[in-house]
Specification:
- The chain is of the alpha+beta class and 205 residues long.
- It folds into two domains: 33 residues; 168 residues, OB fold (Dihydrolipoamide Acetyltransferase, E2P), CATH 2.40.50.120.
- The protein contains four helices and ten strands.
- The longest helix has 29 residues.
- The chain is globular and about 55 Å long.
Length: 205
């Protein structure tokens, strides 16, 4: 065997050993992953408590139609001295249209939306907090949301929880909310709801 052939054999052997070592490390990491335990939470379960849309919107900073782009980090990091907050998911979104608009949310801009729930890593397990009445926002989907600016986090909070989130599917509204005013809007053509929002927001002082 020539020196050239010996070099190739040793090089290939080294490559095989490297791949095997990497694979074993990945398997060990998977085996050492912490178990995930799902807990139900109802932290976001609020209802407007009124049948008047303009009254319901008086507590809202923005009524905004958005497309969810993907998951995001909290815009304003949590200071080390601050206590751990309730788990919260953050999403990047682009504003498609606005029906009640503050100075922060403008048509065509990107904003961050927060939705309570998510994972918290403990010493021996990962706790996944889920609100069964308020499904996690779907990436790539369009929503009409009742929003309020949260200066502490630098993101928009969904007012009324599931009663403030309307999923636009095939130009029809879907909402997980159960309040009478939400049920009255659900399954309506989205254009009808948009018109009702514009009329209601024009009455809000």
């Amino acid at each position: 065997m020539t020196k050239k052939h010996l070099f190739l054999v040793v090089s290939c052997l080294g490559l095989v050993l490297t791949i095997a070592s990497t694979h074993r490390g990945g398997a060990l990491q998977a085996q050492g992953a912490k178990p995930v335990r799902t807990l139900r939470t109802f932290v976001d379960r609020y209802a407007p408590g009124t049948l008047d849309l303009s009254v319901a919107l008086s507590r809202v900073d923005d009524v905004t139609e958005v497309t969810i782009l993907g998951k995001a980090k909290r815009p304003i990091p949590v200071p080390p001295s601050q206590r751990i907050e309730a788990p919260t998911r953050y999403f990047d979104a682009v504003v498609i249209d606005t029906y009640k608009q503050s100075q922060i949310s403008r048509k065509g801009t990107k904003i961050v939306i927060e939705q309570q729930g998510g994972e918290v890593e403990e010493a021996t397990e990962v706790l996944n907090y889920v609100d069964p009445s308020f499904p996690t926002l779907e990436v790539g989907s369009r929503y009409i949301l009742y929003l309020k600016w949260n200066q502490t986090t630098g993101a928009f909070h969904i007012v009324y929880g599931p009663d403030g989130a309307f999923h636009v599917q095939d130009n029809v509204l879907r909402s997980p909310g159960h309040s009478p005013i939400t049920i009255a809007q659900t399954k309506r053509p989205v254009e009808v709801f948009r018109g009702a929002l514009r009329t209601a927001t024009s009455k809000v002082k």
